[in-house]
Amino acid sequence: CLALNKFHYFVINYxxxxxHRNEPECIDRIVHEKFQNVHHTVSATEKYLVGVESxxxxxxxxxxxxSGGVYFVGxxxxxxxxxxxxxxxxxxxxxxxxxxxxxxxxxREESKKHGIKHLQKTLLSRILNEKSLRVAxxxxxxxxxxxxxxxxKVLIVFDDVDDNHQLEYLVGKHDWFGDGSRIVTTTRxxxxxxxxxxxxxxxxLAKCEALELFxxxxxxxxTPDKEFLKLSKxxxxxxxxxxxxLTVLGSFLYKRGITExxxxxxxxxxxxxxxxxxxxxN
Length: 282
Hints:
The protein is of the alpha/beta class and 282 residues long. Helix content is 56%, strand content 9%. It has helices spanning 2-19, 23-38, 52-63, 83-94, 107-114, 116-128, 138-149, 164-171, 207-219, 229-239, 243-253, 258-271, 273-281, and strands at 71-76, 100-104, 154-158, 182-187, 198-201.
């Protein structure tokens, strides 16, 4: 949701230009329409995970689940490419094979808002199933993580890590975790993953995958309506295989007419792929 909110700024810019409305009004309308359009997808989430299985399989083979030792695997790629989706799918697939598991989402944002100590406490509480833990400082928190987890087989996903401070006091080192543990880190910066055992770069979607994902959101089916096929392919070309861009644009164009599609495509041409990337990278 966090990433979707950031990409909304790109859509808002388009909406302001298209309808000559002020930005606050556009924000309210887009958010309302976005949730209204996406609401029907909740019960059919699996349909929208286009291309995820192959990417998930690549990472799972790196994790060597079932073997001994402690493995750190890093998943990296640009904003909107699907790192979190892949990591979440893996977590759902294998978390029942561990003594404790935690998907720690939005580390970058949560760290800025609440600090490392808050994230350490959250992690401890979820793995140990204890709510009354006290952490005096992030130094103590790091010691607690090592002390509590070193004899446990755990699966932890640290989603959207963006600095070394988080790695040092939250993600930790191999000797923090018990035999058989698996640690997954997602990030946009591959340089942060130098101490990980394996790295997986999430590829952008192939054109056929991109068109299918876009179609699920724009038409609620695998392929576009015939009269929209050419326009759909043009929109997909501008999204450059980024699942987040395809999801937001597809949802935005859902139930809109050809004239509105044409106007949207004109605005996409004016805005350009670089602006899409810029908004996703903020």
